[in-house]
From TrEMBL, chain A:
It comes from the Bacteria. The lineage of its organism: Bacteria, Bacillati, Actinomycetota, Actinomycetes, Streptosporangiales. Residues 271-281 have a biased composition (Basic residues). PROSITE patterns: ABC_TRANSPORTER_2. This is ABC transporter ATP-binding protein. Residues 260-281 are annotated as: Disordered. One of its GO terms (molecular function) is ATP hydrolysis activity. SUPFAM superfamilies: P-loop containing nucleoside triphosphate hydrolases. Keywords: ATP-binding, Nucleotide-binding. Residues 11-243 form the ABC transporter domain.
Automatic annotation (TrEMBL), chain B:
It comes from [Actinomadura] parvosata subsp. kistnae. This is Transport permease protein. The lineage of its organism: Bacteria, Bacillati, Actinomycetota, Actinomycetes, Streptosporangiales. GO terms for biological process: response to antibiotic. It is found in: Cell membrane; Membrane. Belongs to the ABC-2 integral membrane protein family. PROSITE patterns: ABC_TM2 (PS51012). Pfam families: ABC2_membrane.
Amino acid sequence: MNEEHSQEDAVTVTGLRYAFDRTGTAVDGLDLTVRSGEVFGLLGPNGAGKTTAIRCVTTLLPVPAGMVRVFGHDVTTDRMAVRRLLGYVPQQLSADGGLTGRENVALFARVFDVPRRERADRVAQALQAVGLAEAADRMASTYSGGMVRRLELAQALVSAPRLLILDEPTIGLDPIARTGVWDHIMAIRAASGMTVLVTTHYMDEADQYCDRVALMHQGRVRALGTPRGLTDDLRARLGGDATPTLEDVFRDVAGSGLDDQGKGGEFRDVRRTRRTASRVG
Amino acid sequence: MSAAPAAPRPASADADGLELLLVPPRSRPAWRLVPARVVAMCVVELQKLRHDRTELYTRAIQPALWLLIFGETFTRINVIPTGGIPYRDYLAPGIIAQSTMFIAIFYGIHIIWERDSGVLTKLLVTPTPRAALVAGKAFAAGVKAIIQAVVVVLIAALLGVSLSPNPARLLGVLAAVLLGSAFFSCLSMTIAGIVRTRDRLMGIGQAITMPLFFASNALYPTASMPGWLQAISSINPLTYEVNALRGLLLDLPARLPLDFAVLLVAAALGITAASALLGRLSR
Ligand SMILES: Nc1ncnc2c1ncn2[C@@H]1O[C@H](COP(=O)(O)OP(=O)(O)O)[C@@H](O)[C@H]1O
Ligand SMILES: [Mg+2]
């Protein structure tokens, strides 16, 4: 049974389009395949459409055009099956400040139908796995940004997801907290072999942690490959001895439109993150 | 510390202390989802109340004032035709219904808060059908309302209202409060789904609570209302809740089957409407 699953792709997106009433097209014909077991990075500047695409994969948004499958299940017709396979950490910092860390995780154990007899142990293991065992019984409103993110990771992991979806997991965190979040993600992934789909606009993180990346710009994938492969290709094309970074690859594929796009996406992201941060603690 | 349960041990060596996180929980049969989610939401509500009880205390003030000042005064003046019982007694069930309705009618604010803070988004990506989430929230509001009802019953008893001590009747009281709050909180969540901001919901909540209260039999019998108000009162679920509470608490002749039927249907309609609009909050 396991072999059969590991052959199957974790996510298949074909021709996905999504347009908002107010701001127009956000995802414009996205094609994407995430293989089972890999860490796949969806990269792009703010406003590229990463979050919108992720929200279609997680069943939060409908799929008006195109097709999205998660381990073979269509996200429009087989929502519940898809949701059972997913762990999701949204872009916005979102833990319930009126509950303790442990209670926050226990809620997710309950809504994923973890039986009562193993609930406490499972919750404890999830908190342990993200390094929050000590702080588990403090109110989440007293957590730092990095701790809230790790708490959210624990919430996502308590149901043993086969696909972990992280939307800008390190946005707004200081460098040490960023490393902390990634270290926990990679450790758990090494143990469980789960697939990770992560969006980020930090190219250095993608370079370091992702097996493959897709560079997204204005709603479409502009380049796809391993971080190493993409930079090597660009070097071969440009000649010269300087080693290009992923960021250079990005400037190359996105062209000059990179600096003036966004339609206010950047501003909204920052505002949203701040608003939560002040609410949570 | 954590005793390893009898789950199949994974092969990986890195899995120490993580073994439960490698096995997905079995899914429950569909018919168990709704009750399971209702329990989950109610547990969260109780945990929050345990951490912060201020709301519990501040919410006791208004009903106490209604019973103490309004109730005592009108008992003395004795102008409201209550069918021979002291007005204080007549009023108590009305105040239970009113103060629990107030809690429920602002419950949608929690939903908007949860949506703004991203908590709702994450719940929507769990195997929880929308209707189960809404039912869970509705009954969580009911849990708050029941606690409030118990507080008001105690206040009323202290003020000398002669309430029925029959446990079956008291259970009936809790059921009526639960259903009434489920309806009003769904009304609130429905409005939340339409207006989508906290301020607008606050405004609408303020605008409708008093009309719902006055267009019911909470303060005075329907018979003494003008005809148009009687008509409104007869489609106001609060009237049926008050009727049930009055019948149960004061041991009066009542139309309990009708009252409970109306409350059940209202709650079911509320859950349906709110679940249909919940998706608007995730866009
Ligand atoms: N809820 C929304 N309503 C209207 N427009 C939106 C909404 N969310 C995103 N957008 C718009 O869609 C585009 C893509 O946004 P998003 O998917 O958030 O990009 P990213 O996650 O890559 O920063 C942007 O132009 C943004 O302004
Ligand atoms: Mg985003």
